[in-house]
User: What shape does this take?
Amino acid sequence: MPPLRTALFQSSGTPGDVAANLEALDHAAARAAASGARLLVTSEMYLTGYAIGDAVPRLAEPADGPGARAVDALAARYGIAVLYGYPERAGELIHNATRLVGPDGTALAHYRKTHLFGEFEHTWFTPGEQAVVQAELDGVRVGLLICYDVEFPENVRAHALAGTDLLAVPTAQMHPFQFVAESVVPVRAFESQMYIAYVNRTGPEGAFEFVGLSCLAGPDGAVRARAGRGEELVTGDVDPALLTASRATNPYLADRRPELYGPLAHRA
Assistant: This one.
């Protein structure tokens, strides 16, 4: 299989302005598709902005809402798959969610953040209950997590055991935790033998300062693409041949002894 060129759209957009964020996403999708990318990944809560406070209930929408239909249309227009973050309304509940749309505009996967971070998220969101969500794109198995989720090695290992090739992680990584983008994400990719596309917000937003540093890390721990601190679109390739070779030589998954690990999942 040929490499899956993946574009990382590092942007905070315009918090509170869905129309402006959709317009910026349209431009990013056009640029990404022109570069040969087949997948465009955005940041956490891209559609509405992250630090939107008590506007969360007003801006939250169903998984098939108007924002979703707009993203479906632009994905089909440029022939590129799009993964974007947004607040999802599901009846009386609101989830911090991400949705993957195929290059023909068809919904491929939907994930709700399972590990909420900080007072803001615990105030407004209900955590999801499905640990592993995946979809196939051009022969690559794409898995979904959101921000804080990737900082739990159990989450990433669950994806590895389920066969995820590329873990796409919209994020809102803030100061002073930039070491996650710089160090933790490449290590996660190495220890679980997969690619990780980690796509951050950038700059000040409400009480937060987002650090950028989005990256595409490979199964050898090397970073294939890295953004700086400002708004940026970077691309890198997810190479199935490298995955196969790396998994053949790295013994982590083969050498696991799961019979020893049961108590670890329940220890306080």
